[in-house]
Amino acid sequence: MAMHFDITDFRLFINIAETSSLTRGAERSFLSVPATSNRIKNLEDNLGMKLLERSAQGVTLTNAGKTYLQHARIILAQLEMLTGDLQEFAVGLKGQFRLLANTTAITEYLPPVVGEYLKTHPDVHIDLRERLSDDIVRSVRDGSAELGVVSGSVVTDGLQSVLLVSSRLMVIAPLGHPILERREVSFKEALQYAFVSLLEGSAINVFLSRAASALHIPMTIRVQVASQDAIFRMVEAGAGIAVVPQACYTRLKGQQQIGACTLLDPWALRTFQLCAQDFDGLPTFAREFANSLVEYHRPALNDAPPA
After folding, report:
1. 64 in the same domain as 119
2. Is 227 part of any domain?
3. Of 188, 173, 142, 200, nearest to 257 (Cα)?
4. Measured between alpha carbons, how far is residue 282 from residues 43, 163, 298 in Å?
5. Is residue 175 assigned to a domain?
6. Which class for 197: exposed (0-12), middle (13-18), buried (19 or more C-beta within 10 A)?
7. pLDDT tens-digit profile of 207-248?
8. Tens digits of per-residue pLDDT, 164-190?
9. 303 pLDDT exceeds 60?
10. Cβ of 63: how many Cβ atoms within 10 Å?
11. Which of 65, 179, 216, 306 is the most exposed place for a label (fewest CB within 10 A)?
12. Are residues 241 and 208 in the same domain?
C-alpha cells in the first residue's frame, strides 16, 4: 500500500511529541483539538499502524511513532536548508531555526548577537529556549534543535562544537556578610547559608540543586525570583546569598551594597560551546548566526587569562 506524507502532519506530530499532549500540540500548531485528533487518526489509518498511545496522562510514542518523529525532523530540517539556500538568490532571507541555551548564555552572552542579527535578518525567526546543557546536547543530536550553547563538562560526542567563552561562578552577598571575609569559598561552605535563586526549573537552579545533592547537603532557598536583577536586589536586602556568573556580577553590581567571592569548585569555571550536528549543513541564515556568535565572542576568548 502506498504511503502518503504531508508536511503539516510532520509539524503537528513533532509538536505533539515535544509536549506529550494532543491539546498542547494542537495549540502550538494553531489547530483545534478535534481537527488534530482527526489528522492523527487519518495519518495512522493511512500508514496502517499506531504512532501514539493515548492515556489520561497524555500521549506517548510507539516504536513506529519514534521512527516517524525522527524522519519528520530530518525532512523539515532539509526543507529549511533548501529554503535558506534558495533564498540566497532572493532579497533577504526567510526562515526559522531553534536555538537552545542555558540560563547564563541567554542572559549574558546571546542578547547582543541576537539583537544585531535580527536587525539585519528581519525575515528570520529564532526559536530561543532555555534548557539544561545535557538536554541541549540531546536535542541537537536528535535534530529537534539546529544550534545549542552548552557549558561545563557535558559530552558533545557526535556533534561539532566551537568554544565561545569562559566564565566563573561567583557567590554574592550583602556587605558585612560572614562569607565575604574570604575571597574564595567552596560551594560546600556556601551551603550553610540560605540562598536567593531563580525560579524552580530554571537551568541554573537545577544545576546548583544537583551540585548540592552530590555533596549530600540540602540547599536552603529562601526566596525565588524571575530574573538576575531581582536576585541582586534581594541579596542586597539581606534575603540570602546567591551564585551568579561573573559576567552577570560585572554587569549588575553597580552601586548596590553587595560583595562577591569566587567559588573554588572545579565546575565553577565553565566554558561555553556552540554546537550543531554539522555547521556546514545548516540553513544559510542559521549558519550566519553561528558565525556571528563566534566572531562576537572571539576577542574575549583570546584575551581571557589561562585557567
Report:
1. no
2. yes
3. 173
4. 29, 18, 21
5. yes
6. buried
7. 899 999 999 999 999 999 988 899 999 999 999 999 999 988
8. 998 889 999 999 999 999 999 999 999
9. no
10. 10
11. 306
12. yes
Query: Cα–Cα distance between 65 and 52 in angstroms, integer?
Result: 6
Indicate the length of the chain as a whole number.
307
DSSP code per residue over 64-76: HHHHHHHHHHHHH
| 216: exposed, middle or buried (Cβ count in 10 Å: 0-12, 13-18, 19+) | exposed
| Counted domains in the chain | 3
pLDDT band with cut points at 50, 70 and 90 for residue 307: very low
The domain that holds 219 is classified in CATH as 3.40.190.290
Q: How far apart are CA 259 and CA 172, in angstroms?
A: 6
> Which residues form the domain of 48?
7-74
Question: Model pTM greater than 0.85?
Answer: no
In the beta sheet, which residues pair with residue 244?
170
Say whether both 134 and 227 belong to one domain. Answer: no
Q: Is there a domain that residue 2 lies in?
A: no
